[in-house]
Amino acid sequence: MNDRFRVIFASREIYELKGGYRAVLSGKLRNTAESLPVVGDMVVCSDGYVIESIEPRKTELKRSSPSGGAGMQVLAANATHLLIVMAMGAGFSIRRLERFLVLAASAGIQPVVALTKCDLVNPVDAAVAESEVKEAADIPVFCTSTVTGEGIGELSAYFSEGDIICLAGLSGAGKSSLLNAFCNTDFETSAVRESDGKGKHTTTARHFIETGKGYSFIDTPGIREVGIGGDAGAVEEVFDDIAKYAKMCRFSDCTHTGEPDCAVLAAVASGALSAERLAGMHKLKKESAAKNESERKVRDKKLSKTVKQIKKLGGTRH
Ligand SMILES: Nc1nc2c(ncn2[C@@H]2O[C@H](COP(=O)(O)OP(=O)(O)OP(=O)(O)O)[C@@H](O)[C@H]2O)c(=O)[nH]1
Ligand SMILES: [Mg+2]
Ligand SMILES: [Zn+2]
């Protein structure tokens, strides 16, 4: 008998499944799977809780492998939303937000922003932070405080039945605190360093949590390095305002770095577009192109290895 289960926790050896079961991978899956199960996956198990296969993922949230190289690390499967959690005040960065937006665009996941700890800043600073986020992306933004309760109801009302919301942000941003406020749970949180607001990496693994309201969350450890993949289209999508100006550049392959009649640089000069935003896009495009190139090299290497193997097999048949 085979049954389907949701993976709620994944370690290298043991997978926890919804319903309180623990499972291991079948030898066949371990040897053949391109990607091992991750939190959020639906898996098919045989008797004795052996995972035989992973159901096709609706979405795959991936970041560039922290160890470098061409690989991508799958953070979560089947998420419908990426809840980007950013604390107001120290460490607030629109450039980091843009990186998260690229990950979401690349995965086809709806991004939502929670600006946390609004009790710690004055209302004017909170409004400025909110407008900066709105300028960077036309997406829902919620100012929240788990101390005063501000924004918690509005944010949870935004989600609906069936949604799977993956939390992401720096350590100390307030991800687990938000989750506790939503679900009345008691996940561990801990104070950030006062000098620079840095967190202590309190959450150390990804977990799938059901709210009892029909939608679920995936809590994640804080990530500092948000490496993007080689998906140039996702970068374009996040910077679609710049793409609009780019259509009016004299050269269709304008790089917006100094060509004559560049509409993008003209927009920067007139103040319609911020120079930092353009620089942010250039940086992400470069990173994405480099990633694309290293992915292509790995593919070519694999292909030539396969070709060699086939030739060798052909040669031994005579
Ligand atoms: N004043 C205030 N403090 C908050 C708020 N949200 C979180 N904090 C505090 O910020 C600190 C870090 O919060 P966590 O929820 O542990 O942060 P996290 O994003 O889960 O961090 P990691 O698990 O390390 O990735 C804790 O001391 C929280 O009490 C808020 O809205 N207002
Ligand atoms: Mg946490
Ligand atoms: Zn241009």
List keywords for this structure.
binds zinc ion, OB fold (Dihydrolipoamide Acetyltransferase, E2P), flat, alpha/beta, Rossmann fold, 5-stranded mixed barrel, binds magnesium ion, binds guanosine-5'-triphosphate, 3 domains, 6-stranded mixed sheet, Ribonucleotide Reductase Protein R1, domain 1, single chain, 9 helices, 13 strands, 318 residues
What would you note in describing this structure?
- The structure is a single chain.
- The protein is α/β, with parallel strands linked by helices and 318 residues long.
- It folds into 3 domains: 3-56, Beta Barrel (OB fold (Dihydrolipoamide Acetyltransferase, E2P)); 61-219, P-loop containing nucleotide triphosphate hydrolases (Rossmann fold), CATH 3.40.50; 232-307, Probable gtpase engc, domain 3 (Ribonucleotide Reductase Protein R1, domain 1, Orthogonal Bundle).
- The chain has helices at 27-32, 94-107, 123-136, 152-158, 175-183, 232-238, 240-246, 263-270, 275-316; strands at residues 3-10, 15-17, 21-25, 42-46, 50-54, 60-64, 72-77, 81-87, 110-116, 141-143, 164-168, 207-210, 216-219.
- The strands form 3 sheets. It has a 6-stranded mixed β-sheet with strand order 10-9-8-11-13-12, sandwiched between helices. Strands 1-2-3-5-4 form a 5-stranded mixed beta barrel. A two-stranded antiparallel sheet has the order 6-7.
- It is flat, with a radius of gyration of 22 Å.
- The model has no long low-confidence stretch (mean pLDDT 91).
- It binds guanosine-5'-triphosphate, magnesium ion and zinc ion.
- Residues 246, 249, 254, 256, 259, 262-264 line the site of zinc ion.
